[in-house]
Amino acid sequence: MKFTAATVAATAAYFFGPASAAASMAELKELKMATWSAQAEAGVYDVDRYQALAATTPCVNGKAGEYRCNKVDLVSFLRHQDMGSSTRKGNDVCECFSPFKSPLHVGNDNES
After folding, report:
1. What does residue 71 show for φ and ψ, rounded to 5 degrees?
2. Distance of CA 63 to CAs 54, 75, 90, Å?
3. Are residues 71 and 34 in the same domain?
4. Residuewise pLDDT in 10s, the chain (112 residues)
5. How far apart are alpha carbons 12 and 7 in whole angstroms?
6. Contact 96, 105 (CB under 8 A)
């Protein structure tokens, strides 16, 4: 199970009441901000840090190019900077193949 901030806050509120949930959310925000700061210092958000891929890259031994995979090929990779993000931060998107066409939604963080 992947724990998100909402999951942790809901669990805290259930077991310890709303005050603990608010404290947990503040702690999670502090942890998130510290993580982003460390990532920025490590160059994770540098311009051209990631290679844009337009062609299918096969998953071989757990890697599709520089990216981790598990028996699923990487069809393409579009960087946040290519979508106009000035901070090059945003959420991940995984669109798996299905018989139905579905839109992709990507969030960019431009610190605004």
Report:
1. 65, 25
2. 17, 13, 22
3. no
4. 445 666 666 666 666 666 666 668 888 889 988 988 898 899 888 888 887 777 888 999 999 888 888 888 888 777 888 878 778 877 766 665 555 656 566 666 766 4
5. 9
6. no
pTM of the predicted model as reported, rounded to 2 decimal places: 0.51
Alpha-carbon gap, residue 69 to 46, rounded angstroms: 23
Q: Please tell me whether residues 35 and 69 are part of one structural domain.
A: no
Is residue 110 in some structural domain? no
In the block, which residue shows the tokens 């077991």?
15
Beta strands in the chain (DSSP E): 63-64, 67-68, 89-90, 108-109
* Phi, psi values for residue 58, rounded to 5°: -70, 150
Residue 57 and residue 83 in one domain: yes
What's the CA gap between 33 and 21, in Å, rounded?
A: 18
Residue 72 sits in which domain range?
46-105
Q: Total structural domains in the chain?
A: 2
Taking each helix axis from N to C end, the angle separating 5-16 and 18-41, rounded to the nearest 10 degrees, works out to 150
